[in-house]
Amino acid sequence: MMAFSEMLLRVANEFVYERGKPFKGSAFGDFVRKDLVQEVKRHLVFWPYELKVKASVGAGNWAAVPWLAFFDTLITETATKGFYVVYLINAQNGSIYLSMNQGTTAVYEEFGRTRGREVLRRRAIDMRERVADHAKNFSDSSIDLGSNEDLPKGYEAGHSFGVCYKQGELDEGRCLNDLQKMLAAYTALVERGGQTPSDVLAAEVGGGSIEETRRLAFSRRIERSPKVRRAVLAAKRPVCEACGLEPEKDYRYDGRPEQTPLDVHHARPLYELAEGETKRYEIPTDFLVLCPTCHRMIHKQDDPSNLSDLKKRIRFKHMREVY
Fold this sequence. Notes:
Layout: H1 4-18, H2 27-42, E1 51-56, E2 67-72, E3 83-90, E4 95-102, H3 105-111, H4 113-130, H5 132-135, H6 150-158, E5 161-165, H7 172-191, H8 198-204, H9 210-223, H10 226-235, H11 247-250, E6 263-266, E7 287-290, H12 292-298, H13 307-313
Antiparallel strand pairs: 1-2, 2-3, 3-4, 4-5, 6-7
Helix pairs in contact: 1-2, 3-4, 4-6
């Protein structure tokens, strides 16, 4: 079996040749989308957070730039928006870039191509400054993807920091070590607020510190984990534990339990989460099932784990029809 670094080099070396063949049914395309992804996932088994890994050589037709991306599902699950870690390949000269980058499509749709690239460059600087302690392990030099098409130019503008591997410079040890450092930078960026402006971030945590922001992000990461959500809803009744809203009766909801319009709230007190802590939680003990309104309100409390305080503030009752 090929090593991860060897697979990346194969993509860099063969993409131009393969792009001259039909896109549909391409064995090379399957290699990138499946084999490459499966190989890198082997090295993420012990990573503490859920990452979605995806590779692409195009959608419906060959892309200008092949890529392999790592998405924190708290932020995004697609390369079109948010921010993420990605390998970008200049197929013209075989250079491989490991980059902290951003979704280009969503920015283009909002601001247009020219202004959108300016927005991406500005956000790239903000991201680099927010995790300066991690970014110092990488280069802030610009990247060259060898294409004048819109998406590659967007990737170039959205690049925050990273490393360039030229032909013959990539070995397995360095490759995996750099990836681990970059994913650590990604985690730090997520926990420190990502692309959210500082004033908005401070308002979200009531003017709190970076540490409070980290803890809030950690709780949200757990709450939004599909695996955690399924387990909690399998162990608890689908009823809001604060106000009593019961979708099955109040809205005549008859869908699957895990798709109920209720939220899972990580109720363990944030101050109990120590620096660097990852997966210390118990299901269902550390969780509450809440309707979206009660979930929003409990996060506004000084202690977002105190269900009793939230219940005392509720001044309405659910009225159900009686047949």
